[in-house]
Structures are given as structure tokens and as C-alpha cells.
Write a structure and sequence with these properties.
7-stranded mixed sheet, Rossmann fold, binds S-adenosylmethionine, alpha/beta
Length: 348
């Protein structure tokens, strides 16, 4: 869920002359950046309640939380109207969002991601010290759930192709397919995984023949699919009998999140628990369904990594107080909205 990367815009603080000016600059910078973030992600009443727990009684800084608030503000993402009044498609909205976030080379993202081209939260154990290793662990854990790594495999929603490239450790390039709705990301995939079959295609409408693949992997993307069910039905169709689907997914804490943010599909796609996920896979016809709750090793550990890392950078003088505050704000917010992280495997 590297949807956080878009929140960190380039940071520019003019050098003020006086203490008072300095204070004003800081105040306005913090105010505008946090307001922008609120606008970008949107808040629902229950998020506000969770984040501000305990504040109401102590002071009125946070103010009264209106029970009826659905969300507070918008930066255009919640409203897919384009500047000229036309309506952007759902695909266009997701592409604008990720193409901007993934290729944003500002200092903070570089700091957190290193030079990895994976764009997921990763799977962290005691030995994991950086985002790239975490992402590799995540993919390896999914691939372990494929009994025989042979024949054709599809990397659905391949991002910039880091996972497609890693598949080449197990499969011949001509047996690897990768799809994404973004042309820009597919171009990166073609560069990162030469010889593989990378195509612009949606995971909910896959132009492959029936019974074509031995395996499908899908890393941290199904929460965008309109809908998960359609993706699972398509996967059933294009897998060979006995073929395996492995995926990692993130569930939101609330269906309201899907209602008010344009990068999420219709709220009917909302799933609250790992058990419901299992049921959906079974209802679609999959056998040998296994769904594991890995929230602690995925979001929980990534969150701690980021929070530790930015404090380290702050104390070494490589981040200033405004940058630190902005990232903390974003991460605590994301923590409030992130529900169960799961791995699933299933067979046709
Ligand atoms: C959080 S990123 C994960 C990228 C990649 N799997 C990785 O782990 O590096 C989510 C990805 O899903 C892609 N995506 C969203 N909706 C899609 C759809 N309907 N079909 C294919 N790709 C989609 C986005 O373009 C983005 O690359």
C-alpha cells in the first residue's frame, strides 16, 4: 500500500529573518501540509474519533467532532471531475495517483524506499532492515505457497516490475506474463524484466484464453479492483485446473473509506475480515483455500520501521521538524485506516 508516497510533496521552507517570521512560516507550512494530507486521504467520522481519542475532554484544540461528518475536505481525488468538468474514469484516477506517487523522486521517499522498485509494504521479520528485503520476503512467502513453480505464471498488477523480475529466479522469461492498467508502469516492467510478456491490461478483464496459466500472483493491489470478485472469477477462468492463485491484500478498517476515496472501488468490494475473504474465494469455486492474517508482519512492522527510521534521520539532522511531523501525521493516519493484511492461496 504504497499509497502513502504521494503525500510527501517537496519541502521548501524559506529562510525567515526574525523569530516571529520563522514561527509564521512553520505554522503555515504545517497547517497547509497537514490540511493537504487530510484533503488527499479524506476523513470519515470514525477515523477522526479514533485519532483524536481522549483529546475532546482535555482541550478544544481538536474541536467538536460532528457525528454526521462523513469526510472533511477534498483535493479532487474524492471527486473524479476533471479540471474541464469532464469525468475521469476509475482507471484514470488510479493511474494518475500511482504514476505520480511511484515516480516521485523526492528525498523522503528515497529515504524510506531506498533504491527498490517494489511498491508494497513488505513482510518483515527480525532480520529485515530495509524496504527492498521486506518486499522480497513478501514475494518469497507468496511463491512458497505455489506447490510447483513450473509452466506459465501471471504477475497481476505488477507495479514497476520488481516482482516480475524476481519471478525470473524461478521461471523462464517467456513463461512470465505481467499486467497493469498503467502504460508507464508497464514500460518500467519491460525494462526491469526483459523477455517477459508485459502488457497493459486490467486484472478484472483479462484477455487471456481459458486454462492458460499454471499460477497467478497478485501483490497488494486487489483493494483497487472493481471488484475483487471479478478478479477472482477471471483468475478461475484463466488458471488451468489445479493451478494456484497466491495474493497479498489489505483490508480497510471501514467501508466508508471506500465510499469517499476515488482510488477505491464501490463499497460493495469492502471485506472486513480474513474469514469473509476465505468465503469469497470458496464461493468463487476455489479449493484448498488458505487465508493467513499477517497484519503484524506487514503493516505493523512497516509502520514501526518508518517511524524508527524517520526519528533516526531527524536526530542526525537529515529531516527537519516539519518533515518529521508530516510523515508522522500521515503514518498515524494510515494506521487508523489500515485493517487486516492477509496472504491467500487457493487452487482451481
Ligand atoms: C500498491 S501497488 C502494488 C504494485 C506491485 N504489485 C508491487 O508490489 O510492487 C498497486 C498496483 O495495482 C495496480 N492496479 C490497480 N488497479 C488495477 C487493475 N484493475 N488491473 C491491473 N493493475 C491494477 C496499480 O497500477 C499499482 O501498480
Amino acid at each position: 500500500m504504497v499509497f502513502f508516497s504521494r503525500f510527501f510533496n517537496s519541502i521548501y521552507i524559506p529562510v525567515p529573518d526574525t523569530t516571529q517570521q520563522f514561527e509564521e512560516v512553520l505554522k503555515s507550512r504545517l497547517f497547509s501540509s497537514i490540511s493537504n494530507q487530510i484533503g488527499m486521504i479524506g476523513y470519515v467520522a470514525e477515523d477522526l474519533r479514533k485519532i483524536s481519542q481522549g483529546f475532546e475532554s482535555q482541550s478544544d484544540t481538536i474541536g467538536h467532532i460532528d457525528e454526521d461528518i462523513e469526510y472533511l475536505s477534498s483535493d479532487g481525488l474524492e471527486n473524479p471531475e476533471s479540471a474541464d468538468g469532464g469525468s475521469e474514469s476509475f482507471t484514470g484516477t488510479i493511474n494518475t495517483y500511482y504514476d505520480e506517487a511511484f515516480y516521485n523522486d523526492d528525498g523522503i521517499m528515497g529515504l524510506l524506499l531506498g533504491d527498490t522498485e517494489f511498491r508494497n509494504i513488505g513482510y518483515w521479520d527480525d532480520q529485515t532492515t530495509n524496504q527492498n528485503s521486506a518486499a522480497e520476503n513478501l514475494q518469497d512467502a507468496l511463491l512458497e505457497m505455489i506447490p510447483q513453480k513450473a509452466g506459465r505464471i501471471l504477475d497481476a498488477a505488477c507495479g514497476m516490475g520488481a516482482s516480475t523480475k524476481r519471478l525470473m529466479n524461478y521461471y523462464a522469461p517467456e513463461n512470465i506474463w505481467a499486467i497493469n492498467i498503467s502504460e508507464k508502469q508497464i514500460k518500467s516492467t519491460q525494462k526491469n524484466a526483459p523477455g517477459c510478456n508485459a502488457k497493459v491490461m486490467s486484472a478484472v478483464e483479462m484477455g487471456f484464453e481459458d486454462d492458460f496459466f499454471d499460477a497467478i500472483e497478485c501483490i497488494e493491489a486487489a483493494f483497487h479492483f472493481e471488484t475483487r470478485k471479478k478478479f477472482l472469477e477471471e483468475s478461475m477462468r484463466i488458471l488451468k485446473p489445479g493451478g494456484t492463485l497466491v495474493l497479498s491484500d489489505v483490508l480497510m478498517t471501514s467501508k466508508h473509506r471506500l465510499e469517499q476515496h476515488a482510488v477505491f472501488p464501490d463499497p460493495k468490494n469492502h471485506i472486513q475480515t480474513a474469514e469473509e475473504y476465505e468465503e469469497l474465494l470458496r464461493d468463487t469455486g476455489f479449493k484448498n483455500v488458505v487465508v493467513k492474517d499477517v497484519s503484524r508482519e506487514v503493516w505493523g512492522a512497516h509502520f514501526l520501521f518508518v517511524v524508527n527510521r524517520i526519528h533516526e534521520e531527524f536526530y542526525h539532522g537529515r529531516l527537519n521538524i516539519v518533515q518529521l511531523t508530516e510523515i508522522l501525521w500521515t503514518y498515524y493516519y494510515l494506521d487508523a485506516i489500515t485493517g487486516v493484511c492477509l496472504f491467500a492461496s487457493a487452487q482451481k
